């Protein structure tokens, strides 16, 4: 139970504050009394923290805690996933003080006594600190108020959550797959095997794996399912690419001659020459170095198989032993060793001289201490420039410059990185320049071998330099081929035990330190728990070192990689945090037994989701990537392999300002975003301009059409005028008078009033008509068009139109002009009385 908040009166606060100020010592940073009511608080009150992840819950929290590195006060929260430090001033998460529990390498309590000032006789309170050392290159120190139980509560909370007894107690299992669903990694591995054999058109499936129907082959190599049940080699994947000429029985026999059963298998094959990169563990040559295996020698010789038509002579085989020669000889005492070139046809054995996991671990510890000592946010709360008083550089005076640089060199980290890079470049050059095959191994074939073989893959194959290909490379050469992430990262095992333990030592009072607390080394010199020793501790930053090597290649070839340095940092942080299950356990078999892919979220889905959220402008994409510029192998010369500290990772905590090596890239990215926005605006303007042009063309076409219609209408109007004149003449020929009023006003046609009488004169009968005749003619609209010229003139009610559509008007005179504008309305009683055919024509004929 946490202690209740300790109330402090104003007088007590002033008295203690005067004592603290009078010392003039380092604990001036611990200005506790500027905080109101420091102490532990019920976690139920803050159960609704918005920054908590899914299934993340608060275990304990302490208020009034000071982050010594930055002299910042705030609240320290322990959850089931991480340690969170909230700023008292802004209430925001402070990145330096927030670390996933799985990333914590060790933590310890420290009590430091302050030496009172010469004029002060009263005893000053001790400083109660909590030091947290992370695997991500940071050392954090939290200060707690004296005479409170805060530090004990926080310490106990970290102790309960940092080292669970079972794998299933990790946060990743509590969270579950959620939205980052993990597709079966065996399917992805099989698809990569198909690609390597030139069978990329085939697609793997769970059903194919269950039936074992994935044993495809090409001219030289085949996929074997001999290890589908993980009996031959528990640390190898279920599918292996092996020479086509070697049977499964021979594979099983050859595995007995290699350490841990890790026989030589193909990791990558050149699509043109057929040269391969192969990996294995050391051979078991025995104490006398005289043990041999004919099956192993046959298998290794088959790695030099050549395709039909290969005309470059016998292919050479290089056996690259990653260890120093003396280390390989030392393994003879345990039955191991190295190959004899005389036993393996066309072979040459080369020792690359890379140190073991213990040397890498100690090297990283020394580098971390160096950065903390000479960094700007050191764990003792002072700047390196001011640590010893006076104008200093690198943690000392001007004369200590060379000593500081020597300290960095003594860490050996950059030398180890250079050794791995040089070995990988040498391997890639043998395959690319000589078309030779290379077999790589170390002792067990899962640490240095994984580093070398995956870096060589990266140098040879441009596909692995893309985001998708990089994922496939890690899943193939690190996860499937059994790099022991569980041991190297100190995670709990499937069985519920662990070979390593965190350093939970408690440091007691160690004397007086007027200017700074005791700096506890983060390396092996610190007190260790009884159950862990240098020999038993299998933790080692092998994967971290490999990512560091990739960052060096990215620095040398900025146009060759689709992903950025920020992607590598986020990938490494995610692996160290154990938030996702992809890197749990030691092998593919163990992850399958634990049901990791079904129970935990997928790191790759998480990273892909981040990239898809912003598209190509996301920080994980390399702004300068140009696949056509480096579409072949990368073969760096030896002079280019001098590494430097990786600023974005090594310096981000100790030297945050100097770690902004990606600032230029960030500015270029902002410029690229602005350019992209301008490009989109330009495309939008061009699209609008095109639409406007199309609209203008359409309007122009309509205008032309209107002009044609107008011209046609003028033509029709002229024709109508002619027809009107013709009709007028025709009507006037009947003895009628036509009166035009204009427009649509009816045209009145009248005859002279006269009567008709019949008389005979000289034998001629003459008729006289007295009937009044009136005819009304109206002009029809211009757009009324009739298909039948007669129908256009003769209305259906006209008595002179016949049933068959003809016209009884004399000689169809009213329609001879094909008029489309005239309709006839008449006094039909008068017209009927005309009896045109009987009277008019008769009278005409008698004339």
What does this structure look like?
With 847 residues, the protein is α+β, with helices and mostly antiparallel strands. The chain has 24 helices and 21 strands. Strands 1, 2, 3, 4, 5, 6, 7 and 8 form an 8-stranded antiparallel sheet that branches. α9 runs antiparallel to α10, α11 packs across α12 and α11 packs across α15.
Strand content: 5-15%
Question: Residue ranges: pLDDT <50 for 5 or more in a row?
Answer: 1-47, 384-398, 497-518, 524-535, 753-793, 815-828, 833-847
What is Rg?
48 Å
Rounded average pLDDT: 78
Number of H- or I-type helical stretches: 24
Number of strand elements: 21
**Helix proportion range:** 25-40%
Task: Quote the distance from N terminus to C terminus.
Answer: 142 Å
Largest sheet: 8 strands, antiparallel
Structural class: alpha+beta
Shape: extended
What are the key terms here?
Myotubularin-like_Pase_dom, 21 strands, five-stranded mixed β-sheet, alpha+beta, Myotubularin, disordered C terminus, eight-stranded antiparallel β-sheet, extended, 847 residues, phosphatidylinositol-3,5-bisphosphate 3-phosphatase
Give a nutshell description of this structure.
36% of the residues lie in helices and 13% in strands. It is of the alpha+beta class and 847 residues long. The strands form five sheets. Strands 1, 2, 3, 4, 5, 6, 7 and 8 form an eight-stranded antiparallel β-sheet that branches. Strands 11-12-15-13-14 form a five-stranded mixed β-sheet, with helices on one face. The chain has a four-stranded antiparallel β-sheet with strand order 16-17-20-21.
């Amino acid at each position: 139970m946490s202690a209740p908040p300790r109330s402090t009166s104003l007088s007590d606060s002033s008295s203690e504050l005067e004592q603290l100020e009078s010392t003039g010592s380092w604990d001036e940073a611990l200005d506790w009394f500027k905080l109101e009511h420091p102490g532990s608080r019920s976690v139920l009150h803050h159960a609704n923290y918005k920054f908590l992840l899914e299934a993340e819950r608060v275990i304990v929290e302490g208020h009034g805690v000071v982050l010594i590195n930055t002299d910042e006060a705030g609240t320290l929260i322990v959850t089931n996933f991480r340690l969170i430090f909230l700023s008292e001033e802004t209430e925001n998460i402070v990145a330096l003080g927030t670390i996933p529990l799985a990333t914590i390498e060790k933590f310890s309590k420290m009590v430091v006594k302050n030496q009172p000032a010469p004029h002060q006789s009263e005893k000053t309170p001790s400083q109660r600190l909590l030091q947290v050392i992370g695997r991500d290159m940071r050392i954090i120190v939290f200060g707690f108020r004296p005479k409170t139980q805060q530090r004990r509560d926080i310490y106990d909370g970290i102790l309960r959550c940092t080292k669970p007894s079972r794998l299933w107690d990790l946060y990743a299992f509590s969270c579950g797959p959620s939205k980052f669903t993990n597709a079966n990694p065996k399917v992805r591995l099989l698809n990569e095997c198909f690609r390597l054999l030139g069978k990329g058109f085939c697609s793997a499936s769970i059903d194919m794996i269950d039936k074992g129907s994935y044993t495809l082959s090409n001219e030289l190599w085949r996929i074997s399912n001999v290890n589908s049940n993980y009996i031959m080699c528990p640390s190898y994947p279920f599918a292996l690419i092996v020479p086509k000429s070697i049977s499964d029985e021979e594979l099983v026999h050859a595995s007995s001659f290699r350490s841990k059963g890790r026989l030589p298998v193909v990791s990558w094959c050149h699509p043109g020459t057929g040269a391969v990169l192969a990996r294995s563990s050391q051979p078991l040559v025995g104490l006398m170095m005289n043990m041999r295996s004919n099956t192993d020698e046959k298998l290794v010789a088959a790695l030099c198989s050549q395709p039909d038509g290969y005309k470059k002579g016998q292919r050479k085989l290089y056996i690259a032993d990653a260890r120093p020669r003396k280390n390989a000889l030392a393994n003879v005492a345990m039955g191991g060793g190295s190959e004899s070139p005389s036993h393996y046809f066309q072979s040459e054995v080369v020792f690359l001289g890379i140190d073991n996991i213990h040397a890498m671990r100690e090297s990283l510890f020394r580098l971390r201490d160096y950065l903390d000592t000479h960094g700007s946010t050191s764990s003792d709360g002072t700047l390196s420039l001011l640590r010893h008083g006076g104008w200093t550089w690198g943690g000392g005076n001007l004369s200590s410059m060379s000593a500081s640089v020597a300290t960095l060199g003594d860490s050996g980290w950059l030398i180890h990185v250079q050794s791995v890079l040089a070995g990988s470049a040498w391997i890639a050059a043998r395959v690319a320049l000589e078309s030779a095959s290379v077999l790589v191994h170390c002792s067990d074939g899962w640490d240095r071998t994984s580093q070398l073989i995956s870096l060589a893959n990266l140098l040879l194959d441009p596909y692995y330099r893309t985001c998708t290909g990089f994922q496939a490379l890690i899943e193939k050469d690190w996860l499937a081929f059994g790099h022991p992430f569980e041991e190297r990262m100190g995670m709990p095992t499937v069985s519920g035990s662990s070979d390593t333990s965190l350093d939970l030592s408690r440091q007691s009072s160690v004397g007086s330190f007027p200017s700074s607390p005791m700096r506890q080394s983060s390396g092996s010199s610190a007190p260790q728990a009884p159950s862990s020793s240098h020999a038993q501790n299998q933790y080692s930053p092998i994967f971290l070192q490999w990512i560091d090597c990739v960052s060096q290649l990215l620095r040398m070839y900025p146009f060759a990689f689709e992903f950025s340095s920020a992607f590598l940092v986020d990938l490494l942080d995610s692996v160290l945090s154990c938030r996702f299950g992809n890197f749990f356990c030691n092998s593919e078999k163990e992850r399958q037994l634990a049901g990791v892919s079904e129970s935990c979220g997928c790191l790759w889905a998480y990273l892909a989701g981040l990239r898809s959220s912003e598209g190509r402008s996301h920080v994980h994409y390399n702004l300068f990537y140009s696949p056509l510029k480096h579409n072949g192998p990368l073969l760096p010369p030896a002079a280019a392999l001098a590494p430097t500290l990786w600023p974005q990772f090594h310096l981000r905590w100790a030297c945050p300002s100097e770690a902004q090596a990606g600032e230029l890239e960030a500015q270029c990215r902002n410029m690229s975003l602005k350019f992209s926005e301008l490009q989109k605006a330009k495309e939008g303007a061009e699209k609008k301009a095109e639409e406007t042009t199309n609209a203008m063309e359409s309007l122009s076409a309509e205008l032309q059409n209107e002009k044609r219609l107008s011209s046609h209408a003028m033509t029709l109007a002229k024709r109508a005028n002619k027809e009107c004149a013709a009709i007028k003449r025709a009507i006037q020929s009947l003895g009628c008078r036509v009166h035009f009023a204009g427009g649509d006003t009816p045209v009145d046609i009248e005859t002279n009033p006269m009567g008709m009488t019949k008389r005979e004169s000289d034998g001629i009968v003459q008729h006289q008509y007295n009937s009044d005749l009136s005819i009304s003619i109206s002009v029809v609209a211009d757009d009324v068009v009739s298909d039948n010229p007669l129908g256009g003139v003769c209305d259906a009610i006209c008595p002179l139109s016949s049933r068959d559509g003809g016209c009884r008007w004399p000689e169809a005179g009213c329609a001879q002009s094909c008029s489309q504008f005239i309709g006839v309305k008449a006094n039909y009683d008068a017209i009927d009385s005309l009896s045109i055919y009987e009277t008019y024509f008769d009278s005409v004929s008698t004339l």
